[in-house]
Amino acid sequence: MRASVALVALVLVTSPGRATGQAIVPPDTSELTLLGLDFGADSAEVTRVLGVPDSIRFYEHPFDVGARLQTWYYRHVWVFFNPQGRRDGMRLILPGLRTRRGLAVGDGVDRARALYGRPDEESADALRWGIGGRTGSQLVVEVHEGRLKSIFVGHIID
To answer: What is the pLDDT of residues 3-38, one digit of tens each?
Structure first.
């Protein structure tokens, strides 16, 4: 009996989140680093870490005439670059890759809430959290049938 009580006490003391009474913290700027790539990494760094992309798409910036954006497509992740050629965002699209806190494509919506708290915005197909007070930086999870379809971390163009 004493061993069972001690085990339960140990589990409660060492478990993260609600069991210890700790508040769940919304995403901070550390979430902007993903797959070993810092926010603002250049194309050479992205190539060093992820290799040569399967394809690249260039397109006009919707609000900055003459500025061009690009997206690099890999099998498991899309990398978005700003007009200065810096990594501005990433979208995880296959299970197995995780955010800094361990959220992965395929996880349930409840896991996202357990790791990041209540979203700032929520709809039937997406949950959104602002990141660390940075204007436009967000963590966005697309949802399909209660599971995460993709995870975006980075700057959102409004």
So the answer is: 433 333 333 333 344 444 456 888 999 999 999 999
In 38-95, which ranges are continuous DSSP H helix?
43-50
Q: Which are the contacts of 79, defined by CB distance < 8 A and separation ≥ 6?
A: 37, 46, 50, 53, 71, 72, 87, 89, 90
Exposed e or buried b per residue across 124-134, where buried means at least 16 C-beta atoms within 10 angstroms of its C-beta: eeebebbbeee
Tokens 């700057």, residue located? 155
User: Between β-strands 77-81 and 68-73, what pairing exists: parallel, antiparallel or unpaired?
Assistant: antiparallel
In this predicted model, what pLDDT tens digit does every residue of 110-133 receive, in sequence order?
A: 999 999 999 999 999 999 999 987
Six-digit token string for 84: 């200065």
Q: Which amino acid is at 27?
A: P
* 91: nearest Cα among 132, 43, 101, 81: 81
Distance from C-alpha of 62 to C-alpha of 66, rounded to nearest angstrom: 10
Residues 143, 109 contacting (CB under 8 angstroms): yes
